[in-house]
C-alpha cells in the first residue's frame, strides 16, 4: 500500500474547490489517512519546495503557498502516487488535459490548484514536513 501527500493550494481554497478535489479522490477509491486546513510556515514551504530552490520562481512560489490556508492531505492506495498525478494533470496548465483537476479548473501554471507528490521518497518527506505521526489515522475501509 502506497501513500502520497496531496495539497489543495491557496487558490483552490479561495475558489471553494476543496470539496470537489477531495471528492475526486474519494470517488476513485483512495483512502484518506489525514487532512487539515493549515497555514504553511515559511520554513516548511522552503523545505516542501527544496527541489525548486534554484529556480527563478522559487521566491514567488514560497510567497504564494504561504499566502493563505491550504488543505493538506495524505491519501493511501495502490499506485496512489502515479494515479494521483494522472488525476491532477500536468504542471503546465496548457498541457493539462480535460478530465484532470488542472485541465478542468486551472488557467495559469502559478495557480494550478493542487500539489501531489511525484515519488515515494518525496511523498514521505512531504508528509513528515506537514503532519505528525499521530495525525495519520489507520482504519479499515470496508468498501
Ligand atoms: P507544484 O506541483 O506544486 O510544484 C512546483 C510548482 O511551481 C508548480 O506546481 C507550479 O505551481 C509552480 N511553478 C511556477 N512556475 C513554474 C514553472 N515555470 N515551471 C514549473 N512549475 C512552476
From TrEMBL:
Record key words, sorted: ATP-binding, Cytoplasm, Kinase, Magnesium, Metal-binding, Nucleotide metabolism, Nucleotide-binding, Phosphoprotein, Transferase
Q: What is this protein called?
A: Nucleoside diphosphate kinase
> What NCBIfam families does its record include?
PRK00668.1
Show the HAMAP family listed in the entry: NDP_kinase (MF_00451)
Q: Where in the cell is it found?
A: Cytoplasm
> Could you say which residues bind ATP here?
9, 57, 85, 91, 102, 112
Q: Write down the chemical reaction(s) this protein catalyses.
A: dZDP + ATP = dZTP + ADP; a ribonucleoside 5'-diphosphate + ATP = a ribonucleoside 5'-triphosphate + ADP; a 2'-deoxyribonucleoside 5'-diphosphate + ATP = a 2'-deoxyribonucleoside 5'-triphosphate + ADP
- Active site (UniProt): 115
Under Gene Ontology molecular function, one entry of this record is: metal ion binding
Top-tier EC class: transferase
Q: Which biological process terms from the Gene Ontology are attached to this UniProt entry?
A: CTP biosynthetic process; GTP biosynthetic process; UTP biosynthetic process
According to its UniProt entry, the function of this protein is described as: (Microbial infection) Catalyzes the phosphorylation of dZDP to dZTP, when the bacterium is infected by a phage that produces the substrate for the synthesis of dZTP (2- amino-2'-deoxyadenosine 5'-triphosphate), which is then used by the phage as a DNA polymerase substrate. Major role in the synthesis of nucleoside triphosphates other than ATP. The ATP gamma phosphate is transferred to the NDP beta phosphate via a ping-pong mechanism, using a phosphorylated active-site intermediate.
Spell out the family assignment given in the record's similarity comment: Belongs to the NDK family.
- Cofactor (UniProt): Mg(2+)
Report the InterPro entries cross-referenced here.
NDK-like_dom, NDK-like_dom_sf, Nucleoside_diP_kinase, Nucleoside_diP_kinase_AS
The gene that this protein is the product of is ndk
